[in-house]
Amino acid sequence: MILVYTFITCHNEGMSGTAITYAFLAGILPSLLWLFFWLREDNLHPEPRLVIALTFLLGMLSVALAIYGESVVTIFVKSQTEQYIVWAIIEEVVKGLAVLIIFLFTDQIDEPIDFMIYFLTAALGFAAIENSFFLLNPLSNGNISASIAVGDFRFIGATLVHTVSSTFIGFCLALAFYQRFWTKIFMGIIGLIGASAIHSAFNLSVLSSAPQNTISIFAWIWCAVIVLIILFEEVKAVHPLLPAT
Predict the structure, then answer these.
(1) Contact 155, 31 (CB under 8 A)
(2) What's the pLDDT tens digit per position in 38-52?
(3) pLDDT per residue over 191-205, tens digit each?
(4) How many CB atoms lie within 10 A of CB 24?
(5) How do the residues of the chain divide into helix, strand and coil, expressed in percent and rounded to 5?
(6) SS3 93
């Protein structure tokens, strides 16, 4: 969400190697837990673990591109509300690019659900590094209680919103799995718009709400997770169109 501000703060203050190591480990753990949870949705024809690992890694590396894009936005867009919306779009685009790279170099996409699996994997890789940035400040200051609070916040909310928003793109592409190329393109655009809207709504809800309302902010995200589970089941029912007789 405010990845670029956190990155700049960490860069300016300077962080110890120990704080960076702990932040990385604490940041990546929630993403790995969620990844293991969601991979069970594809237990009939699981994806190669190496390809999953590469997708997760590319999702992590895509954070650098997001930081650059968001820093450029802060130069030209001064409204905080507009910044949050554009940042959400940038983050969804860079996560999508990570998945696109995997699609270009693998032939493992052989069923509709694979789209959702790869998009959520890249999203969780992205969230892992974003989590680490958010944990750096409290850990470097020795504020363990604040670190735990931030970790809970990231595990419950931000990691989930990355998963839900990006996986929605995968869902849209999964629906068009057996369709023509331009239908896939159209559905991908619809997915990106929807993902950006979900992500932006989360960003703006956090911006406009008081800290004591954090749990209520995340309530709709948990509802979205339930919807996501349903969408996984719907995608499992997508089959090739039968020829007209």
Answers:
(1) no
(2) 888 877 788 899 999
(3) 999 999 988 887 777
(4) 17
(5) 85, 0, 15
(6) helix
